[in-house]
Write a structure and sequence with these properties.
The structure holds two protein chains of two kinds. The longest helix of chain A has 20 residues. By secondary structure, chain A is α+β, with helices and mostly antiparallel strands. Chain A has four helices and ten strands, in the order H-H-H-H-E-E-E-E-E-E-E-E-E-E. The radius of gyration of chain A is 19 Å and the shape is globular. In chain A, a hairpin with a 2-residue loop joins strand 1 and strand 2. About 15% of the residues of chain A have low confidence. In chain A, strands 1, 2, 4, 7 and 8 form a five-stranded antiparallel sheet that branches. By secondary structure, chain B is mainly alpha-helical. Chain B has two domains: about 90 residues, Orthogonal Bundle (Rna Polymerase Sigma Factor, Chain: A); about 60 residues, Arc Repressor Mutant, subunit A. Helices cover about 80% and strands about 0% of the residues of chain B. Chain B is built from eight helices and no strands. About 5% of the residues of chain B have low confidence. The chains are: A alpha+beta, B mainly alpha. Chains A and B meet through helix 1, helix 3, strand 6 and strand 8 of A and helix 1, helix 2 and helix 3 of B.
Chain lengths: ~220, ~160
Amino acid sequence: MRQDCVSELLIDRLLAGELPVDATARVRGHAATCADCGDLLGRAEAAARRFAEARPPLRLPAPRTARIAAASAALAAVVALVIAAPWRSRSGEAGDPDHRTKGGPSLGLFVSHGGALHRSQPGEIVAPGDQLQPVTTAMRPGWIALTAVDGAGLYTIYAAPQPLAAGRDRPLAFSIVLDDARGPTTLTAVFCERPFALDAPPDGCTRDAITIEIR
Amino acid sequence: MLSRAQVEALYRAHGHAVYRRALRLLQNEDDARDVVHDVFVGLQRSGERFEGKSSIATYLYSVTTHAALNWLRNRRTRARLLAGLHPGPAVVPARGEGRALAVELLATLSPDDAALAIYLHCDELTHAEIAELRGCSPRQVRTLAERVLRQLQEEVA
């Protein structure tokens, strides 16, 4: 094993779209010149394709009915507040969904399409099956929640309020694989300095949104 | 607790990596599929333990390693591996013998130490990568690695 050879863990992170762009390029560049690592990466990518094509069903225990009902009620309240209610931006002005407070925490997105990763551009056109990796940039630690509304009007909470680390382009702890719901999807991050309830974020919280088009 | 939809989304995105990891450690497709199921059901029950301390791929790598090691500790699995060591007059492949010995040695370690031994000696991860998996410093990894190596040497002495 050469000094710069890649581990399976690093390959997992690469395929999950968790590596920064420069690290992704470094790993792929090395794999292109190293037979062992190229083989390792090639087999991992082939296994991922086979899994996507013939994914065994996951038999999760059924949730309790009471939990579903409670969650639905909470979700409705969140949808009403997050989508419809006017928003107070960091500066105290009414918020524009695409407005980003200068110097405040921000949301970014990397798109993995056909194994290639790139930073999302405004109005990015993506395809079902593409993988999205949300990233955040923040000067100070805080709290974040991430929600989305897709082309069918379906509201999803991808991340309930959780701690946010300071730093540039820090990936959130998950990625999103797009299903076949076509149309625009808007991802909205809510940033607060302290723990907060998504249906009632306190004054001083900010949000940042990115809209993509799934075709 | 993660929602069913969240776990299913994680399964779609990362199931292949969990399966590949389990298969590498268990060398058996049926066992690997069972471990994948266990990992994601466990994620539904205790996903909050993740808490964003590491990347999800790193977290799943660690969880799958522990789940696979637990599977190896399962009596039936060990019995099958050991039975494979003594199949009668046929020659036992050296790889199978080494594997059964490794499983026996790993069983003498605590779950965390067994995982550390796998990271170091099978996966050839760097101390920095192991530090991220375990949520500690590379220096602590070095100290732990020396202790685990000593323990393994005593077992085979």
